[in-house]
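Lab channel / #folding
Pinned by the channel admin:
"Please post every new chain as: sequence first, then the C-alpha cells as a reply. Keep commentary short and put observations after the output so the thread stays searchable."

First post following the new format, from NK:
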Amino acid sequence: MYATELSPSEIVKYCLMNKIPSIAYTFNEPTIFFEYTYDTAKLANKKGIKNVYVSNGYYSKEAIDMISPYLDAVNIDLKAFTERFYNKICGAKLDNVLESIRYTHKLGVWVEITTLLVPGENDSIDEITSIAKFVKSVDSGIPWHVSAFHPAYKMMDKKSTSYEIVEKAVKIGKEVGLKHVYY
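Reply from TO:
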C-alpha cells in the first residue's frame, strides 16, 4: 500500500478524467485539513463535481460559512445524546455538535446524520428517542443512519450492537416522524 500526495487541482483533474462525480472528505475530521478541502471543493465545484464532508460536527460557524457555497452535503456523526458520552468518549461537548447540525441545515447544505449505537453507552431507548426527536426538530426530512458497533481498537471490551436494537432504533425514528431512517 502506498500514499500519493495530490494537489487540489490534481484531485479535480483525476475526478474529471475518471468521470468521478463527487469527492467525500472523510477518514478524519475534514476541518482538520480545512484549507486543503476548501481549495479542492472550490475547484471541484467550478467543474460540476459535488463535495461532501463526513464530519464529527465539531467545527466552527466561520469554517462552514466559508465552505458552504462549495459544499453539497455533510454527513454528521451524532454520536450520542448525553454530555456524559461526549465528555467521556469524545472529549467534546454535545451542544457544539447539535448547533453545527442546526446551523449547517440553516445554511441550506444537505445534512444527514449518522449514529453508531454502542452497547451500554448510547443505545438506551430513551437516548435513541431523544436523538430521533432532535433530528426531527431540525427537519423530519433529514436522513438518519443508524449503525451497529463492532469492537475495535480501544473499545474491545464492548459487544457488537444487536440487530434487535438497530431495528428498534429504526422503528423509533419512524414513529417519531422521521421520513428517512436507514441501517
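NK: The first strand starts at residue 22 and ends at 25.
TO: also worth noting, The CA atoms of residues 57 and 97 lie 5 Å apart.
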